[in-house]
Specification:
This protein is α+β, with helices and mostly antiparallel strands and 114 residues long. The protein has one domain (2-111). The chain has six helices and four strands. It has helices at residues 2-11, 15-31, 55-62, 69-74, 77-80, 85-88; strands at 36-42, 46-53, 90-93, 105-111. A hairpin with a 3-residue loop joins strand 1 (36-42) and strand 2. It is globular.
């Protein structure tokens, strides 16, 4: 996951745009209706996606295993580690997750001014 994400970003004419396109596609094709999404920022410089409903957490909580949700959240570190802000021109921040007790999972991508 990390290697393929890094390859995609390295090859992209605009890594920020490429990452936003992947994120938007995954909302529909990988996650779907079991998740709830909001986009408080979606422009050429900021893409802030917030997961407000998490299927993984809902299923685990329904089976009295909500404490396992952070393991699902940790999977994202694979692609997050591929982002090199100096090389790719954007940074990523996720300060919390629903699995860690947050009310949402913020996936914030911001271009770095050059």
């Amino acid at each position: 996951m990390q290697a393929s994400t890094r390859t995609m970003l390295d090859a992209a004419a605009d890594p920020f745009d490429a990452m936003v396109e992947v994120s938007k596609s995954r909302e529909i094709h990988a996650f779907g209706a079991g998740f709830g999404f909001e986009r408080p920022a979606d422009d050429d410089h900021h893409y802030h996606l917030e997961v407000v409903r998490c299927f993984y957490h809902d299923v685990l909580a329904a089976h009295s295993a909500a404490e396992l949700t952070p393991a699902m959240c940790a999977f994202d570190s694979n692609w997050i580690a591929a982002i090199d802000p100096g090389k790719h021109g954007f940074r990523f921040d996720r300060t919390t997750t629903i699995g860690l007790g947050g009310s949402r999972c913020p996936f914030h991508f911001d271009r770095i001014p050059r």
